[in-house]
Every structure is written in structure tokens, then in C-alpha cells.
Amino acid sequence: MVTPEGPLLGRFVVGAFWSVAGALISRGFLLAASVVCAWFLGKEGFGALGMIQSTTGMLGVLAGLGLGITATKYVSELRRHLWRLARGWSFLARLTERKRERWPGSKHFKRSRE
Please, what sign has the CA dihedral across residues 29, 32, 36, 42? Predict the structure, then answer.
């Protein structure tokens, strides 16, 4: 058995095995689902489904184009200011918690379980 503290090659082999196994199982289920959909929809319906899937896939690629690079750029540029954002969210969370305690019906939600 390969443990997390084991040799690097052993961990790599085990990780690669599970990655390939997961990909094969996923593709197998996708194939089975496609066969079932084709059986239910018929030739024309399955063709329309294929066109819709390819179009949405293409639009997804175009929509995501460059988002990873853009996020990396802005995170690296604004890393000095991110603590301010985190403090602001923390303040808002505490403020809403205090407001919730003062709501008229809040005493009914604080019943102890007996």
C-alpha cells in the first residue's frame, strides 16, 4: 500500500491510475447515457441535441477565454488590497449577525432543546 509519506514514484503511479480510472468510468457512463438518449429521441432529436451541445460548448470556450489569465493578473496586482476586502466582508457578516439578534421574532429561534 502506498501511503502519502511513501516514495514519490509510488504516489505518482497510484494518482495516475485513479485519474485514468475515473476518466474511463466517466466516459463509459457518458457513452451509456448517449445511447439511451439516442434511443429515446430518435435520429432527428439526437442530432438536434448534438448541435445544441456543440454550440453551447463552443460558446463556453469563448466565454471563458482568458479568464484564468485575467484573474491571475488582478490577484497579483491587488494582493495588497485584498485584506481590506476581507475585513469589509468580515465587518458585514458581524453587522448582519448583530441585526439578526435584534429582529422581533429572533427570540423564538433561540429556544433551547430540552
Answer: positive
For the record, the C-alpha cell of 61 comes out as 470556450
Q: What residues contact residue 14 under an 8 Å CB cut-off, 6+ apart?
A: 2
In angstroms, rounded to a whole number, what is the distance separating the alpha carbons of residues 53 and 3?
A: 41
pLDDT tens, 53-76? 999 989 888 888 888 888 788 778
What residue type is assigned to position 4 of the chain?
P
Say how many residues make up the chain: 114
Grid coordinates of 88: 469589509
Decide: residue 46, CB within 10 A, 0-12 exposed, 13-18 middle, 19+ buried. Answer: middle
